Amino acid sequence: MAEPIFARVALVGAGLIGSSLARAARDFGAARAVAILDASPDVMARVRDLGIADEASGDPAAALKGADLVIICTPVGVCGAVAEQLAAYLEPGALLSDVGSVKESVVAQVAPHVPPGVHFIPAHPIAGTEFSGPDAGFSTLFQNRWCILTPPGDADPAAVDRLARFWTRIGARVETMSPEHHDRVLALTSHLPHLIAYNIVGTADDFGEDTRSEVIKFSASGFRDFTRIAASDPTMWRDIFLSNREAVLEMLGRFNEDLSVLQRMIRRGDGQGLHDFFSRTRAIRRSIIEQGQDTAAPDFGRRK
Amino acid sequence: MAEPIFARVALVGAGLIGSSLARAARDFGAARAVAILDASPDVMARVRDLGIADEASGDPAAALKGADLVIICTPVGVCGAVAEQLAAYLEPGALLSDVGSVKESVVAQVAPHVPPGVHFIPAHPIAGTEFSGPDAGFSTLFQNRWCILTPPGDADPAAVDRLARFWTRIGARVETMSPEHHDRVLALTSHLPHLIAYNIVGTADDFGEDTRSEVIKFSASGFRDFTRIAASDPTMWRDIFLSNREAVLEMLGRFNEDLSVLQRMIRRGDGQGLHDFFSRTRAIRRSIIEQGQDTAAPDFGRRK
């Protein structure tokens, strides 16, 4: 196996992403040692039982000692407070990063606490499942997934390159952009779809018990795919919507405008308009399959 | 294998559902012979190449001769015209059914053309993929899927039972309800989710080329699941929205109300409200898994 890229990676937060990073760093030899730090004693106990870290004492000083890469893997809402707590323990020359789904807010929260001589390079791996916690992680989560880096303008190119090699080693494809651009793109591709999925499942939940049980029974007709998205971690998603408020509200505004047009077509019986609209959206699906972001295998109404 | 339930099933329309029914009727021995009739000469030629029917001449008289079960498998919008064309060829005592995703409209369109002595029992199998046409069908499409029958009040119980046994034989689970109730439940579980998915993919498509290519690139973050739904057959879905207009508009109204509440929570920064909402929707997902309508296997960001 190739030489490890970091001597020691310290992961702060052992949820789905943090615990997957621990396993991946070890399995793909991206770091010589792995430390995990989580605010929850229960999670730390579970991390020790799972044996996915070399250092899991729960002590910040012990976790960050000798760490040349520190990755904050907490919900976005607390990353500023976490950075403040970690600051005193960061080694000179260390690289500080994160995995947050929102980048402008993370930069605003974390940057003020970064000590001189520490390289802060935010990152966002576009990978996940609807499950949470240290048991949900697995080392191949990042295979063939994108990881977006949003380095500040004055970032050390060598540090950016080293972080990119870390993500590449564990299977990801790396892309670089500004935090602002990241937040707009993700508002559309991720945050808005999650909001809509949560909303439609909520609409169903508002019906009485009889209807709700029928909705569950006949969910394979389309609804089911939304429930998977709407089963994602509530704390993580609360923080995303609060942290990327403006971009989400803008995308939601556009979505609502478009929905009004479809609604009017249905009300007026505009069959040609509906057919044209529904034909257009097929092309995007084809592009996604061509670019390897999904397979053309039909969904048989259930996963195998 | 058990005795076939029908001597001959005639399938009118050889799309995904019709061609799957042809294969299933044969593979599971639900009918002694299978006839297929499709208005498109190209489709009929393909049906003959695929060899999935015993009779595939394209002649209505030949297709319906001796058929004790005739199933209309066309888009909902043309089933009335199809029923009118078939009426003269229906055998006395035959059972006429369909597979439409909307039931009140099908009853209104088809019932006036049903000759005396023919049993008309509408049906809707909740099964499908995002692909269309005779090549897309497969015999196990209906395994463990629900098929809803909406027999009229004066239906012959023996005929209803026989149709139920046909669907059970090819793997489906059968449920009976009124057309009105069916249309309301499906508006929520199927029609609204499809409308929303089409809409969000359309919103993305409205952006310029640069953003669109980024949306495709980073689609694994949630958007991708919507594109699969929004790749469904445009003609079929146009007809569904036009045929189930009132129920769809009602469900859309509720959805919009709920979305306004979420939008306000985001704008006002109501973290507790968002967290409560997102926690509630997780419970519905658990029920769906418990009832065997999906598995708990995580979606790894791609299908295997």
TrEMBL record, chains A, B:
GO biological process, one term: tyrosine biosynthetic process
EC numbers on record: 1.3.1.12
MF term (GO), any: prephenate dehydrogenase (NAD+) activity
Ranges in coiled-coil conformation: none
Residues covered by the Prephenate/arogenate dehydrogenase domain: 7-296
Enzyme class: oxidoreductase
Name of the protein: prephenate dehydrogenase
Origin species: Methylocystis echinoides
Organism ancestry: Bacteria, Pseudomonadati, Pseudomonadota, Alphaproteobacteria, Hyphomicrobiales
Gene name of this polypeptide: tyrC
